[in-house]
């Protein structure tokens, strides 16, 4: 994880440029538009406060909105995950996933998908993260924070199967997923393994597999745009999570390329 934002390198741009239509003549450079979006993600700046030397904020927002509607960020996220796994000597698609949630505060005056997580005393939204055993984010979702973890994860099963195809064999999660979520997994022939800390344990205890998704959640602290939910719709919230993982994967890919 680099400590600050850096523009896309030639190698990083080459890894994701096939997803964009570069044949059409445009007023703005798409690579610079992406740099602006990643800068917003890292710094947490408002759209209207983009530096004047960059494209106008409305142009940047236009591309962001169009790419979001086309599910482009989700597809790029899956592609860079596969590339990073291949460079690490692994199969492109994972066979084991880990799942957990994060409750975050929601910006004031936003009522859509808002709730209170009474356990964590957070009034806002709950994000669901599905990562592989190295912490790469494959599937994400967001909803009101008062929803139950297991129930919120059930609609994501199809997305998991779609992303991991027939390789998916097992999913690790805590006690909250041991009910309706585990039953639905069994219907698809997928094993659920409960990874919880022992009841007699005190203080910090790293739980096998579960610490991986906790670390992935911790990585969000490097991106000020997502340390708190500022989005009116959950679809925007989810796409910022994918963009954060894309940026992390591109940094890994660049480091592995240089070595």
TrEMBL record:
Residues 8-76 form the Insertion element IS402-like domain. GO terms for biological process: DNA transposition. It holds the Pfam family DUF4096. GO terms for molecular function: DNA binding; transposase activity. InterPro entries: IS402-like_dom, Transposase_11. Residues 93-233 form the Transposase IS4-like domain. NCBIfam families: transpos_IS5_3 (NF033580). This is Transposase IS4 family protein.
């Amino acid at each position: 994880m680099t400590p600050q934002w850096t523009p896309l390198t030639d190698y990083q741009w080459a890894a994701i440029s096939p997803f964009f239509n570069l044949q059409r003549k445009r007023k703005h450079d798409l690579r610079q538009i992406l740099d602006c979006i990643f800068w917003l993600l890292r710094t947490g700046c408002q759209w209207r406060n983009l530096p004047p030397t960059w494209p106008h904020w409305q142009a940047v927002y236009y591309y962001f909105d169009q790419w979001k509607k086309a599910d482009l960020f989700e597809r790029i996220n899956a592609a860079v995950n596969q590339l990073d796994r291949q460079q690490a000597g692994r199969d492109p698609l994972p066979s084991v996933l880990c799942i957990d949630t994060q409750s975050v505060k929601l910006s004031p005056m936003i009522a859509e998908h808002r709730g209170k997580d009474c356990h964590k005393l957070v009034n806002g939204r709950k994000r669901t993260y599905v990562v592989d055993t190295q912490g790469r984010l494959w599937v994400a979702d967001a909803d009101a924070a008062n929803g139950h973890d297991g129930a919120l994860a059930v609609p994501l099963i199809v997305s998991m199967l779609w992303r991991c195809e027939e390789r998916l064999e097992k999913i690790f999660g805590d006690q909250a997923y041991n009910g309706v979520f585990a039953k639905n997994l069994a219907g698809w022939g997928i094993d659920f393994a409960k990874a919880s800390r022992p009841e007699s344990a005190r203080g910090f205890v790293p739980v096998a597999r579960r610490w991986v998704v906790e670390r992935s959640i911790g990585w969000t602290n490097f991106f000020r745009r997502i340390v708190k939910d500022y989005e009116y719709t959950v679809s925007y919230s989810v796409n910022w999570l994918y963009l954060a993982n894309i940026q992390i994967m591109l940094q890994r890919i660049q480091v592995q390329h240089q070595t």
